[in-house]
């Protein structure tokens, strides 16, 4: 399991931060929230919410890889340590240590947020949510052309990016 926080700038020059978790084995992405002012308390609450959403599946998580960003505090780590999940912080300025999460951020930017003029929080949640759904249903090479939702798909069978981008381009 890995987590990271990334920012998206809107057309009105507002910066939003999105926190997500990604499972290394299945490549499933869980978006926890978006905020303009990420604080340690907000991020710790998102971690608690995520563990509650996982329910019994949280017991199967052995470790969580996270970066050393200023927003991720000791209270965030304590949430996972209380659930017997080992938190592994990456070394400073070494994004390859959290490569799967960084790869998802890059894909999300290239395929979604850089192609749409985001107008606000609601629009951001819509675009990121649609992209996460697209990511969940498309085939992944690392999963043997399976989608993270578990189904085998032909590469051309997944929904084309341009079709859903046109649908969500305007709020």
UniProtKB/TrEMBL annotation:
Span list, region Disordered: 139-158
All residue ranges annotated as the Integrase catalytic domain in the record: 1-156
Coiled coil: none
GO function term, MF aspect, one: nucleic acid binding
Pfam families assigned to the protein according to its UniProt record, in alphabetical order: rve_3 (PF13683)
GO terms under biological process: DNA integration
Domain of life, source organism: Bacteria
InterPro entries per record: Integrase_cat-core (IPR001584), RNaseH-like_sf (IPR012337), RNaseH_sf (IPR036397)
Name of this chain's protein: Integrase catalytic region
Organism: Streptomyces bingchenggensis (strain BCW-1)
């Amino acid at each position: 399991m890995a987590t990271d926080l990334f920012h998206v700038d809107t057309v009105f020059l507002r910066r939003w931060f999105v926190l997500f978790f990604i499972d290394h084995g299945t490549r499933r992405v869980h978006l926890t929230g978006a905020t303009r002012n990420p604080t340690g308390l907000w991020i710790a609450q998102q971690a608690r919410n995520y563990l509650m959403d996982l329910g019994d599946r949280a017991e199967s998580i052995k470790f969580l890889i996270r970066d050393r960003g200023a927003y991720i505090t000791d209270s965030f780590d304590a949430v996972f340590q209380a659930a017997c999940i080992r938190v592994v912080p990456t070394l400073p300025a070494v994004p390859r240590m959290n490569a799967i999460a960084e790869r998802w951020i890059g894909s999300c930017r290239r395929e979604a947020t850089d192609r749409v003029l985001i107008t606000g929080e609601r629009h951001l949640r819509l675009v990121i949510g649609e992209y996460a759904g697209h990511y969940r249903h498309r085939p992944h090479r690392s999963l043997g052309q399976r989608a993270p939702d578990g189904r085998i798909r032909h590469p051309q069978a997944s929904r084309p990016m341009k079709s859903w981008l046109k649908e969500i381009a305007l709020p």
